[in-house]
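Hi support team,

I'm opening this ticket because the web form for multi-chain structure prediction keeps timing out on my end. I have pasted the exact lines I submitted so you can reproduce it. The total is 226 residues across two entries, so I didn't expect it to be a heavy job. Is there a limit I'm missing, or should I split the entries? Thanks in advance, R.K.
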Amino acid sequence: GAVVSQHPSRVICKSGTSVKIECRSLDFQATTMFWYRQFPKQSLMLMATSNEGSKATYEQGVEKDKFLINHASLTLSTLTVTSAHPEDSSFYICSASYGEGYTFGSGTRLTVV
Amino acid sequence: AQSVAQPEDQVNVAEGNPLTVKCTYSVSGNPYLFWYVQYPNRGLQFLLKYITGDNLVKGSYGFEAEFNKSQTSFHLKKPSALVSDSALYFCAVRGVNTDKLIFGTGTRLQVFP
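Hello R.K., no limit was hit. The queue was backed up. Here is the completed structure from your submission:
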C-alpha cells in the first residue's frame, strides 16, 4: 500500500516553455504532499509542502511564481515549472506523508534545452 | 532547527563484510528518524524508521539501525554486504510539531566483489 505514482519520468523541453509534473497517490488519500529537487550527486532539497485545498507553503529561496504547485484533490498534486530555463534542469521528486512515514514518487528528470 | 549529518560521502566495503553508514541528527524533542536508499534516476525506497520503542530497528533487505539518544546518532548497518547494496543512502529526520522531512547529504555505498 501507500504508492505514489509520478509522471513523467523524463521530460525534455525547450527553454521558455512550461512543464507539468504529476504526482498521484494510488491507494490512499494524501492530505499533504512534498516536492523535492535533487541536483546531481547532492541531497534532496525540500521545495514546498502542499496541502489539499490550500496554497502551497514554499521553502525560503524557492520562487513560487516559477514553481507552481496545485493540490486540488486528495490524490493529485502537480508541480508546474513555468518559463523553464537550463538552470531548472534537475531531478524532481514528490512525496506524500502516510501514517508516521512517507512514500516517494519515482522522480522526474527534467532537462531544459 | 532540525538537521541531519552524514559525515561520509562514500563508503567502500568488500562483499560479505559488515557495513556501517553513519548518521547524526539535531532536533528538538524526540525525533522520527528514517533511512532511504536511492538507485540511479529513481525515487527513494524506504529501508527503516525509528519512532519510539526498541533502539535497534530492523528494516528491509537485512538492514538495521541503532538509535543512540546520547550520541544523537542513527547509524545504518548490515552484517554482510552485497554488491547489489551499492547505491546512495539517505538519512532523514522529522522533528516534533512539523511534518517536514529533512535529509542528510547522502552517502554513496560501494560494495566490491
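A quick check on our side: The mean pLDDT of chain B is 93. Let us know if the file doesn't open in your viewer.
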